[in-house]
Amino acid sequence: MPRAINGTVRKNRRKKYQKLAKGFWGRRKNLHRTTKDAVAKALLYAYRDRRAKKREFRSLWIARISAAARQHGMNYSSFMNALKQSGIEINRKVLSNMLFENPDFMKTLLEKSKVKP
User: Fold this and answer.
1) 10, 14, 31, 87: least buried by Cβ within 10 Å?
2) Is residue 21 within 8 Å of 38, Cβ to Cβ?
């Protein structure tokens, strides 16, 4: 009787890693042990960076709002405080996008919040 050596199971297990390592460079896509390590590290980076992306985008929005506020002689914190005091509730993502696409929108916001630049 021939000896069973788990051929298909082994092949499928390796194929799973090969699929995840598609696009990797050099040995990282060819050799199984290297591929396994590379895929594990890539998945860790992906997990970590899904959370870091949220922080980075918030920083970008704040930088854009700050730049628009400085053009009108204010700093970021006093501008956001003026918006809050006047009851204008708008999140940083939307505010950043509006200021990025339409720079004149800042004048409207300053008039509504009754703050002089």
Assistant:
1) 87
2) yes
Nearest to 88 by CA among 65, 67, 64, 114: 114
> Would you state the pLDDT for residue 117?
56
Tens of pLDDT, residues 71-107: 988 899 999 999 999 988 899 999 999 999 998 888 8
Supply the pTM of this predicted model.
0.74
Q: Are 69 and 76 in contact (CB under 8 A)?
A: yes
CA 91/CA 81 separation, integer angstroms: 13
Distances (CA, A) of 4 to 7, 8, 10: 8, 10, 12
Q: What is the rounded end-to-end Cα distance, in angstroms, of the chain?
A: 90
Residue ranges of E strands in 61-101: none
Question: Counting beta carbons within 10 angstroms of the beta carbon of residue 8, is it exposed (0 to 12), middle (13 to 18) or buried (19 or more)?
Answer: exposed
Place of tokens 């929005």: 61
Q: Which residues contact 34 (CB under 8 A, 6 or more apart)?
A: 27, 28
